[in-house]
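Q: For a teaching session next week I want to show students how multiple molecules come together into a single three-dimensional assembly. I've collected the sequence lines for a complex. Could you give me the predicted structure tokens for the whole thing so I can convert them for display?
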Amino acid sequence: MIGSTMKKENRVKLFEDYLDELFPNPRCELEYNKDYELLIAVVLSAQTTDKRVNQVTRVLFERYPSLEALVTARLDDVADILRPIGTFLKKAVFVQKIAEALLENYHGHVPNDPSSLQKLPGVGRKTSNVVLSNLYDYPAIAVDTHVERVSKRLRFCRQSDDVSVVEAKLQKVYAKKNWARRHHQMVLFGRYHCKAVKPECDGCKMRGICPYYQKLSKK
Ligand code: SF4
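A: Of course. Below is the structure for the complete assembly, covering every listed component.
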């Protein structure tokens, strides 16, 4: 049975087995030692790679090893450290405002509920989902560029679906207890296998049932 005719739930089941085989212990690739370091790293990861974020946060958190130090840092110095990841001035402002808000409103800790988190500067739904699932085991599926691409290629959703629809559809196909795990696995699968450019279809076990691959092969 090929991808275009196989039922979605069967494609999902095969995909979940494959993800568990490829990534039995999935984890976020952003480096952090403290809760706020993860939050800041996720905010900084917009429009850049985790690898680049890790390079700048190693410098940032060594030079400014506490929230208080981040708040009192010179903005131009923070921006200079963040320069390699793009939109560095805006991100530097976010870093300082987040540090300030955590100290003022949350005793220096990252809040564990989506509505409080999403009130913080630079924090949207995707960031909040990533942070909550990593720090607090909160069931969430953050839809980043990798998750969206893989979901569309495997036709778990429509091409025209926006990220909130993709998220809602993924919440229906996966068991809630697995949401965070599947999110991490799909990020890794998109990053290392089902890449945006030149996906590694030849070695992919989904090839036989992947609608995207089958469409490509017909061309
Ligand atoms: S066959 Fe290719 S396009 Fe389909 S899931 Fe695998 S890597 Fe992605």
